[in-house]
Amino acid sequence: MGRNGSPHDVHPVFRGHFRWFAAIRPRYRAASHVRKLTCINVCVAAAAFAATVEAARKYGSETTMKAFVYQGPGKSALEDRPKPDITVPTDAVVRIVKTTICGTDLHILKGDVPTCTPGRILGHEGVGVVDKVGPAVTAFKPGDRVIVSCISSCGKCEYCRKGMYSHCVNGGWILGNTIDGTQAEYVRTPFADTSLYHIPADADEEALVMLSDILPTGFECGVLNGKVQPGSTVAIVGSGPIGLAALLTAQFYSPAEIIMIDFDDNRLEIATRFGATTVLNNTDGKAVEKVMKMTGGRGVDTAIEAVGVPASFITCEDIVAPGGVIANIGVHGTKVDLHLERLWDRNITITTRLVDTVTTPMLLKTVQSRKVNPKRLITHRFKLDKIQDAYETFGHAAKTNALKVIIET
Predict the structure, then answer these.
(1) Residue 50: predicted pLDDT
(2) Are 246 and 222 in contact (CB under 8 A)?
């Protein structure tokens, strides 16, 4: 109630109740009316007023949320932001339960992604509960548990009809890039019917966070583009989260050899546990020599680049066999030399790709059937109010041994 007793000075949620009390107050002043007001009437009135005060308190708290915001190169903060709402009929608003950090988020914080401007809420991965849906959404309803895909697809444009959702002319990779993302308590997801996935009742939510991006990225950009086949020889350059996701999913196709190359013994030890047949620490710079020796001078059928630096791509060029495939996954920020003077006659294929998430439904089934367990990629867990610590841990993985971190809202 305002200082002057005006209904305009109180919260809008219980302003109507204040007017009601103000209207009947003169009656209470009359002794005859006061005597007629029974104890039960007073209790009911008090309970109603208390309920509206609580509703107002709740209403006020739900208009804002906590969100991790990019403020420019090298700058970020956990801020109070307005809770998102439906803006077009195909939208849904999802209450985020768990999210994570991607290497791309680190690139953004360094200022390497010009499409992501200061003031943007970061994050493009997560699982949650549908809070509200637009009138055109038919596949989801409030209360549904969902995976939020890193790629938003309208399902109607030319690229979507080709299955290239990452190049959707109305969507693509926009979450945490050109629109606000998932490192927050709520997120607005465009094209909900074609950009969310139902979570089965008995599913592990932490494992399914890995289906937002990392598992389909390793599989589509590395394994499928790399044409991994039964009995083939595969080398994965980079034993970080993406390289390990490629390792897990390459085993769907039973290659004879999977060679992991990295500089970090801890990550190589994890790769061995995940199914690598050979691990090579390239600190001595002799990984190429060792691979060629192992393969009798032939090289590998599939070389998967999972780092995003020139040296790792050149390693792939050096070890790919005639007729083989170099499948690039890494995000490259600088130019890479293509040594056509050596490769022009080798019949090799070089592939690039941004994940389309077309395999997410299939991967969800493999996780449910326990054919693959992406939860093994998770090493650290944080609450949203400790997200700066999560970034520090993830950004210094060589020291912290971090792979994927889970952030719980």
Answers:
(1) 52
(2) yes
3-state secondary structure of 155: coil
Instruction: Name every residue whose Cβ is closer than 8 Å to that of residue 173 and which is 6 or more positions away in sequence.
Output: 124, 150, 151, 152, 166, 354
At 183, list the tokens. 């490192």
Q: If you classify domain 216-351 with CATH, what class do you get?
A: alpha beta
Give the chain's residues under pLDDT 70.
1-61
pLDDT on residue 56: 39
- Whether the CB-CB separation of 153 and 165 falls below 8 Å is answered with yes
Nearest-angstrom CA–CA distance, 154 and 192: 9
Q: How far is CA 129 from CA 1, 240, 384, in A?
A: 35, 30, 17
Q: How far apart are CA 313 and CA 398, in angstroms?
A: 21
Write the DSSP symbol of residue 200.
Answer: P
Tell me which residue has tokens 């994890």. 270
Domain 65-213+358-408 and domain 216-351 have a common topology: no
The CATH number given to 65-213+358-408 is 3.90.180.10
**Other CB atoms within 10 Å distance of the CB of residue 350:** 17
Give the whole-angstrom CA distance, residue 315 versus residue 331.
16
Q: Residue 293: its pLDDT value, please?
A: 98
Q: Break the chain into its structural domains and give their ranges.
A: 7-61, 65-213+358-408, 216-351
pLDDT of residue 62: 73
- Residue 311 near residue 288 (C-beta atoms within 8 A): no
> Quick one: 224 exposed, middle or buried, by C-beta within 10 A (0-12, 13-18, 19+)?
buried
| 3-class SS of residue 129 | strand
d(CA 169, CA 179) in angstroms, rounded, equals 14
Beta strand pairing call for 404-408 and 92-100: antiparallel
pLDDT digits (tens, 9 = 90+) for 294-312: 999 999 999 999 999 999 9
DSSP 164: -
Dist. CA 374–CA 214, nearest whole Å: 9
| Pairing state between β 278-281 and 349-351 | unpaired
Name the pTM for this structure.
0.84
Q: What is the 3-state secondary structure (H, E, C) of 55-93?
A: HHHHHHHCCEEEEEEEEECCEEEEEEEECCCCCCCCCEE
